TrEMBL record:
This is DinB family protein. InterPro entries: DinB/YfiT-like, MST-like. It comes from Streptomyces kurssanovii. Residues 15-37 are annotated as: Disordered. Pfam families: MST. It comes from the Bacteria.
């Protein structure tokens, strides 16, 4: 258990807007172009932004910091979030198919969080898993450009899958905000 004096001081790299993660000119989420046209393009733009935010929250940390758990009894860590999102990307492909489900990436339920260890090999594997699973789910969904199309055994709409993906990343980016602040005190959106 941490005493108050053991907690890192809150800080941000941002100087223009102190509640932001980075200054606008240094924030890769800021684009010089207008927002995209169309529903699908807008959904993909939000998904890209949240994916980038998760990576930004993990940047500059070592394996121990990424694996550091929040508060007992939670098993949540930044590395666990990366692994969890790789796992759910894989699971979303199961929603698309009528066939046999793809097996869990990390085996048993909750292994994405529970089995996290502070080793660089696990960090590297987690990022590789996330990139691979994102690309595979992106490719599977690209075959269904009609957001109203219903797919899979449950006849879930592509729109629902896209919105759920955004919601999942957004919710976990909120967790990442708090986890990062616990690790080294860095704050910002």
């Amino acid at each position: 258990m941490h005493r108050m004096s053991d907690q890192p001081a809150r800080w941000t790299q941002a100087t223009v807007y102190p509640d932001m993660w980075a200054d606008p000119d240094n924030d890769p989420r800021n684009k010089e172009s207008a927002s995209p046209d169309g529903e699908l393009a807008t959904l993909l733009d939000f998904l890209t932004g949240y994916r980038m935010t998760l990576r930004m929250k993990c940047e500059g940390l070592d394996a121990e910091q990424l694996a550091r758990r929040s508060v007992p009894p939670s098993t949540m860590s930044l590395l666990g979030l990366v692994r969890h999102l790789a796992e759910v990307e894989r699971d979303w492909r199961n929603w698309i198919t009528d066939g046999e489900p793809v097996p869990k990436l990390y085996g048993r339920r909750d292994a994405d969080f529970d089995d996290v260890v502070a080793e660089q090999a696990m960090v590297d594997a987690a990022y590789a898993d996330l990139e691979r699973e994102q690309a595979a789910t992106d490719a599977a969904l690209a075959e269904h450009p009609d957001l109203g199309e219903r797919v899979g055994k449950d006849k879930t709409s592509i729109r629902e899958l896209m919105v759920h993906r955004i919601e999942e990343y957004a919710r976990h980016c909120g967790h990442a905000d708090l986890l990062r602040e616990c690790v080294d005190g860095r704050v910002g959106q």
